[in-house]
Amino acid sequence: MVLERPVGRVRGLLSSPLATYHLLVGSTTLLLAIGLVMVLSASSVESYKVFGSSFVLAQRQFMFAGFGVLLMLLISRIPIASIRRLAWPLLGVTFVLLVAVLVIGVSVAGQRNWIALGGPFRFQPSELAKLALVIWGADLLTRKQPMLRDPRHLLVPLLPVSGLIVGLVLLEKDLGTVLILLPIVAGLLFAAGAGAWVFLGLGALAGASIAVLSMGASYRMGRFAAWLNPDADPLGVGWQLTHARYAFAVGGWWGQGLGASREKWGSLPEAHTDFIFAVVGEELGLLGTLTMVVLFSVLIISALKIARDSQDFFVQLASTAIAAWIGIQTLLNLGAVLGVLPITGVPLPLVSYGGSSLLPTLVALGLLMAFARQEPAARKALADRARKRARASSARRAESAGAR
User: Fold this and answer.
1) Domain membership flag for residue 268
2) Distances (CA, A) of 235 to 231, 238, 344
3) pLDDT tens readout for residues 118-152
4) For residue 238, which phi and psi values (nearest 5 degrees)?
5) Is residue 60 one of the residues assigned to a domain?
6) Residues facing 121 on adjacent strands
7) Distance of CA 363 to the CA centre of its chain
8) What phi and psi, each to the nearest 5 degrees, are found at residue 111?
């Protein structure tokens, strides 16, 4: 009897036409909140060391998040037709920036993939490329939907343009972003109904290319060696992964408590960016890390549910591509921190420090929210809710006028 009412309410919420929208908003809000708290904790030592204050990096992340949430809310209210009009302009801007970064870009950790914006702020065009590829690719394939059974129309110009974007990003020596761009293209092709031969061929080509690129860079081979055996060189290439393991071991089931991480005091490189999940494990324990995994799962499943349930081909394509983007990026980051995958240097969506990654991700989630709101049943539910609010407001005004 005690559990009947809460269980009934949960079932009612999940059966609501707006259930997917609410799941997206809830999981996004919780992940962003956890991310802000963890950036504040994980960046405090580095921030004090560099700026003389423990809060500078956290303040910037709060600023990025505030601006990103505004963009997300704005995008979530835009009609799908208006979103599609952004496809070609966004692709054009992305190409210009990807070329510009090769000329005027700033090198960080051996990768020339940043454009200085003045002062301490930098922008990474390859992060914008993910969003541009999702919107442009979905719009392109939607326009060509009647002809997609012909492989020429299915693959051209999607693959040549995607290949050009990937090539420009590779010139920046940013293999990690390429490993996310490729699944976005695969997600678009999958939702468009591409046959198994397409994925076998492209998978073989991508695998061979990644192997050649990895063997051609000593630091990538070092990361691969550290993944295979981090104990072979714990003071060298295995340092980061070794200290990530220490963080998880110390965190245990319940963690050491917020702010109590020892590894962030200089032992764990990139504690507030690529390896922030290790600090989560140390401070919040297994409970905290599993909570984040569940929230990411809800986010990805919600995107796939939108793709499955929608009758709009553009929505199906874009939702699948966004699910591939966030899912693969999350997998690459968590896998690297846990030692299951080689380190690729990609941030954890919504959680790691950095506006270049956070803003496009929030815009992509805003797209999913727009798709969820504009489903016929959801539109009807929203219209009914608006009418009820209008009637309630009119009744309150009439009651107030009668009292006077």
Assistant:
1) yes
2) 9, 6, 19
3) 777 888 999 999 999 999 999 999 999 999 999 99
4) -90, 0
5) yes
6) 118
7) 10
8) -115, 125
Q: Check residue 259 and give its pLDDT.
A: 93
Q: Give the separation between CA 7 and CA 9, rounded to whole angstroms.
A: 5
What's this model's pTM, rounded to 2 decimal places?
0.93
Domain count, the chain: 1
The tokens for 215 are 């063997």
- Distance in angstroms (rounded) separating the CA atoms of residues 361 and 19: 21
Taking the C-alpha atoms of residue 169 and residue 175, their distance in angstroms, rounded to an integer, is 8
Cα gap 124→178, rounded to integer Å: 13
CB-based contacts of 275, cutoff 8 Å, min separation 6: 240, 244, 268, 269, 337
- What the block records as the tokens of 52 is 């003389």
Structure tokens that stand for 299 in this block: 């986010």
Whether 220 is in a domain gets the answer: yes
Name beta bridge partners: 116.
Answer: 122
End-to-end CA distance of the chain: 46
- The beta-strand segments (E) located in 280-378 are none
pLDDT tens for 26-40 read: 999 999 999 999 999
| DSSP letters spanning 295-312 | HHHHHHHHHHHHHHH---
